[in-house]
């Protein structure tokens, strides 16, 4: 972030003539601002922001309805209660039956080196991810029942409810 000093009005100061008066007059006109987007190039900076890519409604369009949301890359499933000794191969073998897996992300505990108990499985299409979610939620992996659900979910619309107090 940048610190910017804006001078509100053009002030001609001759330091030799006025001394402290000119400095005080200058201090009154100065406004200190912090952050992005200040200065002469302000308009151009905001136009650059509009150029970022966004997530498009691909396979499934919900509008404002609650439900699963696509990440930038694809549809991600959150797998819970995964056995601590499960490997990426075990997960890949089980989940690849329902479609092409784009990415598998498993996190290991630094202290023990075992799986933390959850994994993220990414599919390219909504149909593949949805079928895998329905089929594998509650299924067994290495003797443990796993839970499979959407990783990103858009919740219901928030409405302001006012409770009446008596």
UniProtKB/TrEMBL annotation:
The record, for PROSITE patterns, names: RRM
* Keyword presence, Ribosomal protein: no
Stretches with biased composition (Basic and acidic residues):
43-67
Chief location bin:
nucleus
Any GO BP annotation: mRNA transport
**Boundaries of every RRM domain copy:** 75-153
Location(s) in or outside the cell: Nucleus; Nucleus speckle; Cytoplasm
Region spans: Disordered:
33-70
Query: What CDD domains does the database record attribute to this sequence?
Result: RRM_RBM8
Gene3D superfamilies noted in UniProt = 3.30.70.330
Protein family according to the UniProt entry: Belongs to the RBM8A family.
Q: What does this protein do?
A: Core component of the splicing-dependent multiprotein exon junction complex (EJC) deposited at splice junctions on mRNAs.
Q: What is this protein called?
A: RNA-binding protein 8A
The organism named in the record is: Psylliodes chrysocephalus
């Amino acid at each position: 972030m940048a610190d910017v000093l804006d001078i509100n009005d053009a002030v001609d100061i001759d330091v030799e003539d006025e001394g402290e008066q000119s400095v005080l007059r200058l201090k009154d006109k100065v406004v200190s601002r912090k952050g992005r987007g200040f200065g002469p190039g302000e308009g151009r900076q905001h136009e650059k922001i509009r150029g970022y890519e966004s997530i498009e409604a691909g396979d499934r369009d919900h509008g404002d309805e609650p439900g699963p949301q696509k990440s930038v890359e694809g549809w991600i499933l959150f797998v819970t209660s995964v056995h601590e000794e499960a490997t990426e191969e075990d997960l890949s073998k089980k989940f690849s039956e329902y479609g092409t897996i784009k990415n598998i992300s498993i996190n290991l505990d630094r202290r023990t080196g075992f799986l933390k108990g959850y994994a993220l499985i990414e599919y390219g299409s909504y149909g593949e991810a949805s079928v895998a979610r329905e089929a594998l939620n509650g299924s067994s992996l290495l003797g443990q029942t796993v839970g499979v659900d959407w990783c990103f979910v858009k919740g219901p619309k928030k409405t302001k409810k006012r409770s009446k107090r008596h």
